[in-house]
Amino acid sequence: MNQWKEKIIGIFNATVSLTPGEQESLAEGWHTKPSLKRNDFLIRKDETETNLFYIISGSLRIYYPVNDDEICVGFAYDHNLICSYPSFIRQQPSAYYIQALSACEIAAIARKDFYALFDRFPKIERAWRMLQEEALVGKIERETELLTFTPEERYNRLMSRSPHIFRIIPRKYIASYLRMTPETLSRIRPS
Amino acid sequence: MKTEAFLQALKSDTAAIIGAVKNDFYTLPDAILNHKPEVSTWSILECFAHLNLYNRYYLKAIEDALFLVEGPADQEVKTTWIGRKSISMMQPGNRKKQKTFKRMDPVHSTKDRTELDLFLRDQEKLMILLQKAERVNINAGKVPVEFFKMLKMNIGEALQFVIVHEQRHVLQAHTTLTGTHALKMPVLSI
């Protein structure tokens, strides 16, 4: 089995223990997609998300376009799963763009294939539920931080949660993600 | 390879190490620097405290050896058995775990952020030694091996040993850092 397929199984296996048969069925659904170059889009606004993606290598940002600005709402890099989640869940046009920040190798599973697995293998559905729970907790914490904390505190929280992010993601996008200007970020964290 | 090209490569390796420390570690909060993934594994600061213990010995020993040698510079690089052995053991590519000598165990070091300051100051010293080395015959000179002083490396080997050993533990510090985030960030990004 491909190394990246084993890693995907590892993500699901981290919380439930899948049988060899379940692992194989999960692995079967995933296929590689054409590589992305920097600035290519994984999904654009108004497209409907029909895939869940796994990032074999590279980094991406999720952003919401508003007037002339783009608000960064999330990042993903090596060994993450990513999708335009509201569109993926409701099967309606995406309000977000997902764009490559570097060259990316990507794998995907079609939503219908993924959901078909749930009927056959409750454990895969359970693992997916737990992955969503963690993502939800992350979103709630982030919302509270944005509403409560000063820019400095928001920066410190990000640093303690994912200090490596400054190695991977350009600063202007981190500033956008933290809802501060690049100038404020430079003041808090000189480059 | 000629010794001048050899020293040039070591200089750029050292510059890369300095860059990694400044960009990737120096700005981290204490909690991350002190985080131990497991009881038996080193925190990021312990990695650097360990390197500082080595540097305290080797930088002085290399400086002393440089003092005693002369030209001609830029010769074909020569190696010794103990030099090759020591360097290959420490190469970051060699994933075999090596046992740490008790006196080099960072368990008794201060392990606060000053370890990073000390490490960076030592890198400046190392750069100066690399510059001095350009003017002499680095195949000569005798630098006693720390754990068994009867054995001696030549100056070029001792410099390379110090740097590959640093690379080894900077890599370890990066691995620790990546592991720290992997525990905390959701895998699913939405």
Automatic annotation (TrEMBL), chain A:
InterPro entries: cNMP-bd_dom, cNMP-bd_dom_sf, RmlC-like_jellyroll. It comes from Chryseosolibacter histidini. This is Crp/Fnr family transcriptional regulator. It comes from the Bacteria. Residues 14-126 form the Cyclic nucleotide-binding domain. It holds the Pfam family cNMP_binding. SMART domains: cNMP (SM00100).
From TrEMBL, chain B:
Pfam families: DinB_2. SUPFAM superfamilies: DinB/YfiT-like putative metalloenzymes. Residues 27-173 form the DinB-like domain. This is DinB family protein. It comes from Chryseosolibacter histidini. The lineage of its organism: Bacteria, Pseudomonadati, Bacteroidota, Cytophagia, Cytophagales.
